Amino acid sequence: EMQLVESGGGLVQPGGSLRLSCAASGFTFSSHWMTWVRQAPGKGLEWVASINQDGGKEYCLDSLKGRFTISRDNARYSVYLQMNSLSAEDTAVYYCGRFFSYHMDVWGKGTTVIVSS
Amino acid sequence: QSVLTQPPSVSGAPGQRVTISCTGSSSNIGAGYDVHWYQHLPGTAPKLLIYGNINRPSGVPDRFSGSKSGTSASLAISGLQAEDEADYYCQSYDTRLSGSVFGGGTKLTVL
Prior knowledge:
Chain A is mainly β. Chain A is built from no helices and eleven strands.
């Protein structure tokens, strides 16, 4: 069974940093693009970042560039999201997804990030 | 303001048919990029319903169907069931933003 499990969320103070992880299983991880999507409270889904199979190509939402970085470790079957200079606007559930032909066909259950003092 | 526009809510009685529209522009749907649809219940993983405008993944009932024309797309749900009550999102790719874009989401209420 294909599965994605996110971790690393929690409560962080404004200006702080957090690194989210997503562990994949049930498919050949190194063959697929991966992506992060978030949902702020009361809001819709928002694409955050995507990364190609070998990590050589990364794409990030313009408004997050310079603060958020996506990376992956194919040996560990994991994708990561490094988030710096966090603000209340970054409070959201962060979902990891397998990105295939411009859509997400496998999703994790998400990890919650709360930015608050 | 989402790049793709969806109605905030739709409703229907059990057994009825409802449609959810998704309107984009020349930099996304109108540029020929496919539209995909997801069903989402709060606190759970979003579920892919339709990919490539019209295709259903294995396990998705044929009550769900998708279409695309010009700069818009639609999701139709026939034979409404109580379990269909959820949020629905369309998604495509935008060349101007160089990334995926979602609609604002539509809350389906089964009366």
